[in-house]
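User: I'm preparing a small set of examples for a lab meeting where we compare how different chains pack in three dimensions. I only have the primary sequence for this one, and I'd like the structure in token form so I can line it up with the others. Please keep the answer compact; I'll paste it straight into my notes.
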Amino acid sequence: MLSSIKLPRQWAVGSGQWAGRKLTKKSARVNTMSVQNYRGLIAWQKSMELVKLIYSLTKKFPREELIGLTSQIRRAVVSIPSNIAEGQGRRSTREFIRHLSIAHGSLRETETQNLIAEMQEYISVEESIEVMNKCAEVGKLINGLANSLREKENRNV
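Assistant: Understood. Below is the structure token output for the 157-residue chain.
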């Protein structure tokens, strides 16, 4: 989907996988936070795919929605990868977790606005389902990453 964006190799931080294989307890401790840049987080990569999807769908929205629903859903979806990136760049795990929580809230906002767009018949049921499925995927990745960070934080206490 993101053919125009060059993405690094995918790392499933916090989702129970590391480079396509299951983590052992020992390797999880060593590798869980080895990603040095937010672009290496699958949660960020998949949320960028969601941004691209929403932007392509909202191009079809009526012109009178440009400053309404179009603008609002675009801001919400852009907030998801933005908060993941900002949180990863913060100095503490606690701040990263807080930004993931904000990203998750923006994800729910995107879902709600997607359902409104479907209800208004700006998008088809099939398109809405595609968005909801992508949102579910991103939500699981954000939750997995947040849970992994909480475990890391608890081990360091």
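A couple of notes for your slides: Residues 1-33 have pLDDT under 50 and may be disordered. The two ends are 40 Å apart (CA to CA).

User: Perfect, thanks.
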